[in-house]
């Protein structure tokens, strides 16, 4: 059960219903596609695994700000892209 997918599927269905009611020529053609697609998204959310929290770097490392590689905390520059790391000196 992935609740984010359930909510986004419901919003897509709502948008499709709005397109159906308002009847703008080009948008109307997509209204039923949106309703069906939103239903598929909401239905798939029941079978999708629950999402985990944000990705955190391993102990003693940080993510490079430029290329997202793992950099040891004491390194001033990223070994992969040589990007200067932000060091906390307060
Ligand atoms: Zn880097």
Structural description of this entry:
- The radius of gyration is 22 Å and the shape is elongated.
- Helix 1 packs antiparallel against helix 2 (25-45).
- It has 2 domains: 3-45; 54-90.
- The protein is mainly alpha-helical and 90 residues long.
- The protein has helices spanning 3-22, 25-45; strands spanning 61-63, 70-72.
- The protein contains 2 helices and 2 strands; from the N terminus they run H-H-E-E.
- The chain has a two-stranded antiparallel sheet with strand order 1-2.
- Zinc ion (ZN) binds next to loops.
- Residues 64, 66-67, 69, 78, 80-81, 83 line the site of zinc ion.
Count of DSSP strands: 2
Main sheet, how many strands, which sense, barrel? 2 strands, antiparallel
Overall outline: elongated
Helix content class = 40-55%
Quick summary:
The chain is built from two helices and two strands, in the order ααββ. The chain is mostly helical.
Comma- or semicolon-separated keywords:
90 residues, mainly alpha, 2 domains, two-stranded antiparallel ribbon, 2 helices, 2 strands, elongated, binds zinc ion
Write the layout of secondary structure elements.
Layout: H1 3-22, H2 25-45, E1 61-63, E2 70-72
Antiparallel strand pairs: 1-2
Bound molecules: zinc ion.
């Amino acid at each position: 059960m992935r609740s984010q997918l359930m909510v986004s599927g419901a919003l897509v269905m709502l948008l499709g219903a709005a397109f159906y009611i308002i009847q703008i020529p080009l948008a109307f053609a997509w209204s039923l596609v949106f309703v069906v697609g939103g239903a598929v998204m909401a239905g798939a959310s029941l079978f999708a695994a629950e999402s985990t929290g944000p990705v955190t770097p391993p102990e003693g490392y940080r993510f490079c700000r430029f290329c997202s590689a793992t950099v040891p905390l004491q390194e001033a520059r990223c070994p992969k892209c040589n990007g200067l790391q932000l060091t906390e000196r307060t």
